[in-house]
Amino acid sequence: METITTTDLSKFGARERQLAEILLRAWRVQGLPEDFTDEEVTIMLNTNSGCVFLTNSEFQAVMFNGDKLEIFYYCPNCGNEGFEKEIMNDGKCKQCGEQIK
Ligand SMILES: [Zn+2]
Predict the structure, then answer these.
(1) C-alpha span between 29 and 68 (Å, rounded)
(2) Where are the alpha helices (H) located in 1-101, listed in sequence order?
(3) Ion ligand 1, residue ranges at CB < 5 A
(4) CB 72, CB 64: distance < 8 Å
(5) Does an H or E element contain 6, and which?
(6) Angle at 6 between CA 23 and CA 43, to 5 degrees
(7) Biggest CA-to-CA distance, the chain
(8) Coil, strand or helix: which one is 22?
(9) Span 30-62, pLDDT tens digits
(10) pTM of the predicted model as reported, rounded to 2 decimal places
(11) Which residue, 56, 48, 4, is CA-closest to 32?
(12) Distance 93 CA to ligand 1 centre (A)
């Protein structure tokens, strides 16, 4: 399936703009995750999933895990994706053993 992402806020609906507000507020209140590179940070929308997240020059993605901002990881080897605790043991993919972090 094709993934279409955009940073164009005119493509964000009311719901997506609200999610962007909540993300910006969480960034202000709790800061960005430690391992997230603080460069060229922008708000991005996945128009397929309706998912709104923060991303950066390293193409890392930050989303809410519950009410906490966390990096959403992707295994380049097997495509496994999720938050660190869900998909990794000691920085390695639980599914294929690839070093992700
Ligand atoms: Zn993997």
Answers:
(1) 11
(2) 14-30, 84-87
(3) 75, 77-78, 80, 93, 95-96, 98
(4) no
(5) strand 5-6
(6) 20
(7) 40
(8) helix
(9) 999 999 999 999 999 999 999 999 999 999 999
(10) 0.89
(11) 56
(12) 5
Measured in angstroms, how far is the CA atom of residue 84 from the centroid of ligand 1? 12
**Residue 66 corresponds to which tokens in the numbers above?**
């519950």
Reduced to 3 states (helix: H, G, I; strand: E, B; else coil), residue 11 is: helix
Q: Distance between the two ends of the chain, CA-based, in angstroms?
A: 26
Q: Which two tokens stand for residue 7?
A: 């940073």
Q: How many angstroms separate the CA atoms of 12 and 56, rounded?
A: 19
Task: Give the tens place of pLDDT for each residue, 3-32.
Answer: 699 999 999 999 999 999 999 999 999 999
Residue 77 three-state SS = coil
Task: Identify the DSSP state of 9.
Answer: G
